[in-house]
User: Fold this.
Amino acid sequence: MSGSRVRTTVLRAAWVLLGGAIAAPVGAAEGMWTLDNLPRAQMQAAQGLVPDAAWVDRAMRAAARLAGGCSASFVSSSGLVMTNHHCITRCLQQLSSPTLNRMATGFLAREREQEIRCPDFEINRLEAITDVTEQVRAATAGRQGAAYQAAEDAARARLTRECRGSDVENTRCDMVTLYRGGQHQLYKYRRYADVRLVWAPEQAVAAFGGDPDNFNFPRWCLDAAFLRVYESGKPAPVAHHFPFRAEGPQPGEPLYVTGHPGNTQRLLTVAQLEFLRENLGTEVIPRNSELRGLMLQYARGDAEAQRLAQNALQGIENGLKVQRGQLLALNDAAVMDGKRRAEAALKAFVAGQPELAARTGDPWAEIEAAQRIRRDLDAEMQLLEEGRGFLSVYFGHARTLVRGAAERSKPNAERLREFNETSLPQIEQRLRAAAPVYPAFEQARLAWSLTRMRSQLGADHPLVRRVLGQRTPEQVATELVAGSRLADPAERLRLWAGGQAAIDASTDSFIALVRSLDADARSLRKRFESEVQAVERQAATRIAQAKFAQSGRSAYPDATFSLRLSYGEVAGWVEKGQPVAPYTDFAGAFRRHTGAAPFALPAPWLAAREQLNPAQRYNFVTTHDIIGGNSGSPMIDREGRVVGLIFDGNIHSLGGSFGYDGTRNRAVSVHAGAIVEALRTVYDAPALVQELLNPARP
Assistant:
């Protein structure tokens, strides 16, 4: 079943209710809940128990996240971390070469001395949550537009710096905005910057079924991997971790997911959803479809070109399927009508209370007006400020170096938010990372993005004329790549350390390009933040306060890549009148094997077939409410033991950005027993199996 065939009919009733999520009772298993505001009554009603404070604290400290955008968990006292294979592909690519393709071969460190550092990986463990809502409100009170945005950024810089203290390398603090501005919290993390690869299976089995099976079920994927965090050159001891329960979960058993869902839009206004629908259909999906075509064409080259293109294609195709599912959901009239009714109901509630109405005003109209400005600015904002017109690793490094030099000379409170003091360790880690850069590949991507920028803005647009002049996009891309040394970490660090003087003196082609564009990009960003972002944030804050007045804090906020808990159980669903069983097994993987990608099991699996237990459960589905970013989340039981590893959702979960339907939305996991059996029988990794099953041993 492809993403274009997602069905939303059954979702309609559920999403009509969800449109007023804060006003309506939340259904069983719905919600991505912050750990300080769990739905205790709903959990008690649905599962007959509620985790106590000690369980929640342990779950918080055993959970982890990859700073690049995935979830993870600690699974031994020696810093062993479990996540998905697709979450560490960047590490595998960075550790590969034209003669060694670790994506294809996989990797196993049989001894800890063989564990290899992932060049730019960072793992975070949440230590504390502090509410700072009143401090942010005090800092922004009475301000509008650019002044509001500047005050909020200054408050963020001050609060995160105070939170971090002097421990620059080991502590990270993020200010998390919840309920679209209704609440602000400081999340304090233990930061691990020395992250090493322990085990990853072959891509062929991690992503078995490829794009045809993606977001579908049944599945047969070993989408799992293990990393280890180090401190002072030794495995980091961790006090809290999740042990493995290899027998896995049973139907009806209470199960929990601790993870970091990336982004949902369930609390957006109707005007914002209408813009999102328009943007998905006219810009995002066409752009990514063209990029997919470029990568397919590039893959027709030699083996190295195929390797690079295939790595990129996995992410592009995954994103396209998600985006098409989102668009289909937003095109469903019943879904949008439900959102409109919920919005109208909240407006009526506000209008019925004079004091609340006076405080609230008409934030919906303000957001709608901001969307008109967003439409005017969006193309240039995406191409210039977001850099999508210059698709290249080189451009990203150059932007960081040019802006970093300017911003670090300013007081912390006046900097662009991505350059405040608490962000500098992450930036420096990326700059020093010895990750390979492939000039021909970068040149192809850059030429394509320049061509698309010219097509989108027109040949006479000032930005296009400044960048291209009388040259073709291909000529400009060739000259830029040939004239840059930013692939060399030593050169990047030299420019970073040299500050503004080094940037001004640099003759690097990409540095010169970014210097020439930066004033215009900053001006565009300032207008966008003042006339769109600040307006939306202030208006959304008043909407959130109105919802709190209506029903208190009885609902969950939108996902923000902050730690959440979801609850649910193993359960299949009914598809076109036919039941979908909740489990698959190893035998099914061999039946599905054809010998041709993407249904080709790797040689070690074929060699171990007779030794594997064919009845071993492999993948399974549950009712947990998840979204992108939950990849790598542990599935744990009431004792806090790992029974599975989230790696996907089913096809009906693609509209999960906007709502949840417990009858068909399903999370897809790798069974804990499948991971253990594969490590023991296919990969001959007894030490790793022993560490998982006896995690307290050093």
In short: The longest strand covers residues 183-192.
